[in-house]
Amino acid sequence: MRVTIEAMGAAGDGIARDEAGRPLFIPFALPGEVVEAEPGPARGEGRVAALTAVETPSPDRVPPPCPHFGICGGCAVQHWADEPVAAWKAARVAEALSRAGFPGSPVEPAPPSPRNSRRRADFAIRRRAEGVAVGFHARGSSEPFDMAVCFVIDPRILALVEPLRALMGSLAALRRAGSAMVNLLDTGPDLWIRTDGPLTPGDRTKLAGFAAAHGIPRIAWSKEGTREAPEIAAQEGPAIVTLSGVPVSPAPGAFLQATPQGEAAIVAAVLAGLPARMAGRPRIIELHAGLGTLSFPLAGKGRVEAYEGAPEAATALQAAAGRAGARVKSVRRDLVRQPLLPAELNGAAALVLDPPFAGAAEQAAILARSTIPRVIYVSCNPAALSRDLQPFARAPGWKVERAVMVDQFLWSSQVEAVVTLARVI
């Protein structure tokens, strides 16, 4: 089928129309291109189609630098120039705000994260007849491809792939499938492995030797598919990450912002969203605080009440705040089951909401009808952002004062935003 690509979809696929006017989602095609494509399975109201030829290429098409592009499921738009990618992501944030009821809101792009800056990676591992495969999932598959290079993750993480392949192949605990998550901390790579069999005494000896040989302060282990907290299998030293000058001891696999540059952009946008003047010792409420990525910079502006549902994160945050003498009070609370009520918000100068991917629909509705003067929403999902901001658009007196697009997921379809909502006086 010969078609013209009309737009770029949310997943990074080019969108065209078939002869019946139904959408065709064509991976690796770009807006404005005339392409040949083979229609395939249904997706929503349309079909996925395989790109077979590009007859008229876009001037924005560029050679993808990675030889795994097209095989790896991580990158969707490595064949698209940087400027149109940034414009596309900013437009997605603007569209989300418009659907929420705030049309015409300008969106400022923050500087994108550079190549090889990602400090988190979760590798899939499979034992096969020809050896052990370590890498990201292949496109459209739950199986990994054997990874050799990557232009997204930090080189210090990439350097562990080959040694991990040898290590995992030697472990009796890896029967068929496992995984390895790496967080790059100030003290080195923090490794959490999961296997489908139990660790043997010999495996534990090998993990200790691996940690010593590769400068890994801590290796945690858990059984694949369980929800139990991981156990520490090897410890060479402390596992520390510094957040806005405060040392924090995270649990294995703890959530960090994907890149240091992305973290800095989000922190800057959140601080810029605070009121210009806050008298006395202002009270700032933070929801879904995690390890304190935003808590500690916010503490430079006022007294922070940091709510977090994960016990390990709440404990790490409180311990770090205590050691540093920061004006942060960590409160463990399941915000999905127990969102903050309007009376609990009285007297706060501002509230920062940084929910997980699913958003915070119930909490957002409560905030919209409360008396709090300012809400700063940190979003990693435009669909959830649009839904959660609709109550603010329906309630009287709210406006979008500022919106910043943050791109710390290079060449992917993921986009983040920091949106400041203020009451019109």
Automatic annotation (TrEMBL):
Keywords: 4Fe-4S, Iron, Iron-sulfur, Metal-binding, Methyltransferase, S-adenosyl-L-methionine, Transferase. Transmembrane segments: none annotated. PROSITE patterns: SAM_MT_RNA_M5U, TRAM. Pfam families: TRAM, tRNA_U5-meth_tr. Its EC number is 2.1.1.190. The active site is at 380 (nucleophile). Residues 1-53 form the TRAM domain. GO terms for molecular function: 4 iron, 4 sulfur cluster binding; rRNA (uridine-C5-)-methyltransferase activity. The keyword Mitochondrion does not apply. S-adenosyl-L-methionine binds at residues 257, 308, 354. InterPro entries: NA-bd_OB-fold, SAM-dependent_MTases_sf, TRAM_dom, U5_MeTrfase_fam. GO terms for biological process: rRNA base methylation. Belongs to the class I-like SAM-binding methyltransferase superfamily. RNA M5U methyltransferase family. PANTHER family: 23S RRNA (URACIL(1939)-C(5))-METHYLTRANSFERASE RLMD (PTHR11061:SF49), RNA M5U METHYLTRANSFERASE (PTHR11061). This is 23S rRNA (Uracil1939-C5)-methyltransferase. It comes from Muricoccus pecuniae.
